UniProtKB/TrEMBL annotation:
Residues 200-244 form the Caspase family p20 domain. This is MALT1 protein. Pfam families: Ig_3, Peptidase_C14. Keywords: Disulfide bond, Immunoglobulin domain. It comes from the Eukaryota. The keyword Disulfide bond applies. GO terms for biological process: proteolysis. The keyword Disulfide bond applies. InterPro entries: Caspase-like_dom_sf, Caspase-related_regulators, Ig-like_dom, Ig-like_dom_sf, Ig-like_fold, Ig_sub, Ig_sub2, Pept_C14_caspase. Residues 2-81, 105-185 form the Ig-like domain. One of its GO terms (molecular function) is cysteine-type endopeptidase activity.
Length: 244
């Protein structure tokens, strides 16, 4: 009879800034000693990771990739872990946030106001960092949209009843974070002049400085930047956040 191998801890997907360091974990049990081998896939190229033969795989995020771990026993039985996604955000400053971040969701892309005609597709998009990767839930006028559980909200043929105020909640085991609320108008003729007049083009640049040459490191510049960023976004600013 083949020797059973059971994976007791699957790796989990993450969504992190470029340059962020973390570890994927895989644990398994078997009737003999076990061997581990990690694989990664970028686009259609799947390859073995040389030297990645431990239960833990340390990663410094550079590009979005998929990962899986193969577990072998001494009788040539093998099982594979779940494929997990390491999503890398390049729109965030490299390595931000470093030590103070505990993996709670951080919104990095807010949806934008939409004005579409009846019968045309409606698309809203958001994105959040998180460890583990956040799950998403969209709302319209405060009501949960049962089928809209992805970063991208998609309605193939918009109806007048789809008009309203939309926002999305990104959540994981560390907490939740909400996007800005945006208005969606279905069935109204677009009015470029009115939109032009209401566009303010407000941009805010936030710099959190943590490393001083002749002063001890500050305690919470990164968290302050996130809190100020969220506040300014609520006031209609487009926010660019940098660290050091």
């Amino acid at each position: 009879f083949p020797t059973a191998i059971a994976i007791t801890e699957q790796p989990v997907s993450v969504s992190v800034p470029v340059g962020y360091s973390f570890t994927l974990r895989c644990r398994a049990q078997g009737r003999t000693s076990l061997q581990y081998q990690w694989f990664c896939q970028h686009q259609s190229d799947c390859r073995l990771i040389p030297g990645a033969t431990s239960q833990d795989l340390p990663i410094t995020a550079e590009q979005t990739q998929l990962y899986t771990c193969r577990v072998n026993d001494l009788h040539r039985n093998a099982v594979f872990s779940d494929w997990v996604k390491v999503e890398v955000h390049r729109c965030v400053a490299r390595g931000l946030p470093p030590r103070l971040w505990q993996g709670e969701p951080v919104i990095v892309l807010n949806p934008s106001e939409q004005r579409v005609q009846v019968g045309q597709p409606l698309q809203l998009q958001c994105a959040a960092m998180g460890v583990p990767a956040p799950s998403y839930q969209w709302y319209r006028n405060g009501n949960l949209l049962e089928q809209q559980k992805r970063k991208k909200l998609w309605i193939p043929q918009a109806k007048v009843s789809d008009s309203g105020s939309y926002l999305c909640c990104a959540s994981n085991s560390h907490g939740e974070h909400w996007t800005n609320a945006v208005d969606v108008h279905v069935g109204e003729q677009s009015q470029p002049t009115a939109l032009c007049c209401t566009s303010t083009g407000k941009i805010a640049l936030l710099v959190g400085n943590n490393r001083y040459q002749h002063h001890p490191n500050l305690m919470a510049p990164v968290r302050d930047v996130f809190e100020l960023s969220h506040l300014l976004e609520q006031l209609g600013f487009q926010v660019v956040s940098l660290l050091d």
